[in-house]
Write a structure and sequence with these properties.
Helices cover 47% and strands 14% of the residues. It has 302 residues and is α/β, with parallel strands linked by helices. It has one domain: TIM Barrel (Alpha-Beta Barrel), CATH 3.20.20.100. It has an 8-stranded parallel barrel, surrounded by 5 helices. It binds NADP nicotinamide-adenine-dinucleotide phosphate. The site of NADP nicotinamide-adenine-dinucleotide phosphate has 27 residues, from strand 8 and helix 11.
Length: 302
């Protein structure tokens, strides 16, 4: 889809390079194979950040892309400046490190990873505009920004435009996205949905055991403590809807996001997961099935 600030279209589905376990040598080899496989399978949107593995994620992506200059040019590469580096001199140093590790002259989209209210957003956006002017970054975006922060960033960046807000958004953890949807549609900001499969929960893989291992929960509030049992109940209901419709649960999760106007950015720690997720994306889901899934998790405000 077209986004503000670049002539390169934003791919509809992407792979994130965050999930590298403990970043052991074996983890890194597995991730390299996963990214290479995703590129072969046609994935073109690749998401990384300076904080992922303290730069190792960017380095792995750069290494894989360096093997095929054609693919490197075709790819839509996204990186992020850490929330701890939002002052002007820090951003200039951060993008330099990112481009060196990725081994490319520019990224297609550069995001503020998360807000830091102690740093004036106008200072941060001023440097982002300068980087776009110099061609080091294509489009400009933010991540984990709520409506007031997004509106403030948009005002500070004008006349340039914020192209993207990358947020956690999935069928069971949907408040933030539901809140941002209308503002983003009205102001032409694309929503990138991270954690679209709720760390694997929305593939159905934990239904057999009835609970999710702590390592997979990764701090998601819907998956922990008091919410965990209710969430499992919702996932069981969603799985029932998917089964009855004859489609994978992951198809329901990914196509529900598409219908909400969001672009799913999934994670995968092995090539087979990439294949399963692309198959899920390629499986159409009728609107009435998505309506039924939506009703399972829609908050009741009455
Ligand atoms: N901007 C931000 O603050 C922010 C925050 C979080 C994430 N992100 C980005 O979004 C990307 C995706 O986030 P995420 O990893 O939370 O997304 P996710 O797609 O919800 O979860 C990915 C995990 O789910 C499991 N999984 C995926 N496909 C599977 C399949 N077909 N079958 C079984 N299990 C499967 C794997 O867990 P195992 O590895 O345990 O097998 C995988 O690591 C990240 O890589 C990162 O680029 C951004």
């Amino acid at each position: 889809m077209p986004i503000a600030g670049t002539s390169k279209p934003h791919p509809e589905i992407g792979l994130g390079l965050w999930n590298l376990g403990r970043w052991t040598h074996d983890d890194e080899l597995r991730e390299e194979a996963t990214v290479a496989h995703a590129l072969e399978a046609g994935v073109r949107w690749l998401d990384t950040a300076e904080v992922y593995g303290a730069g190792r994620s960017e380095r792995i992506l750069g290494g894989v892309l360096a093997r095929d200059p054609g693919l490197a040019t075709e790819s839509f590469v996204v990186s992020k400046v850490s929330w701890e580096h939002l002052r002007p001199a820090q951003i200039r140093a951060a993008i330099q490190g990112t481009l060196e590790r990725l081994d490319r002259p520019s990224v297609d989209l550069y995001l503020v990873h998360a807000p830091d209210d102690r740093v004036p957003i106008a200072d941060t956006m001023g440097v982002f505009a300068e980087l776009a002017e110099s061609g080091k970054i294509g489009a400009i975006g933010v991540s984990n920004f709520d409506v007031p922060r997004l509106a403030a960033a948009q005002a500070a960046l004008a006349p340039r435009r914020i192209a993207v807000d990358q947020i956690r958004y999935n069928l069971i953890d949907r408040e933030e996205g539901d809140e941002l949807r209308e503002h983003c549609a009205r102001t032409g900001v694309a929503i990138e949905a991270y954690t679209p499969l709720a760390h694997g929960l929305l593939t159905g893989r934990f239904l057999g055991s009835g609970s999710m291992p702590a390592a997979n929960r990764r701090g998601s509030r819907r998956l922990d403590g008091e919410h965990a049992a209710a969430t499992m109940g919702q996932v069981r209901a969603l799985a029932g809807i998917a089964r009855k419709a004859g489609v994978p649960l992951a198809s329901v999760a990914l196509h529900w996001l598409r219908r909400q106007g969001a672009l799913p950015l999934f994670g995968a720690s092995r090539p087979e997961q990439v294949d399963a997720n692309l198959l899920a994306w390629g499986t159409p889901v009728p609107d009435e099935v998505l309506d039924a899934a939506d009703a399972v998790t829609r908050p009741n405000h009455d």
